[in-house]
Amino acid sequence: MNGKPYEIDESELHAWVDGQLAEERRAAIEAAVAADDALAARARAYRTQNEEIRALFGEAALEPVPRHLRPHRIAARQNRRRWLMPLAASVAWLAIGLAGGWFGHDWLHPDPAVDPSRYVASQALSAHRVYAVEVRHPVEVFADEEAHLVKWLSKRLGHEIRTPDLSSQGFRLVGGRLLPAEGGAPAAQFMYENAAGRRVTVYVSLYRSGQETAFRYQTVDDVGAFIWLEPDMGYAVAGDIPREPLLAVSRIVYDTLEVRQ
Amino acid sequence: MTLRKNGTSTETVDLFFDQLERWIPNLRRYARALTRDREQADDLVQDCLERALSRRHLWNEDGNTRAWLFTIMHNIHANDTRRNSSRPATVPIEDDAGHQVRPPAQAMRIAGLETAAALQELPDEQRQVILLVALEGMSYGEVAETLGIAQGTVMSRLSRGRERLRRMMEDGAPDLRIVK
Question: How far is A213 from chain B (nearest CA, A)?
Answer without folding.
Answer: 30
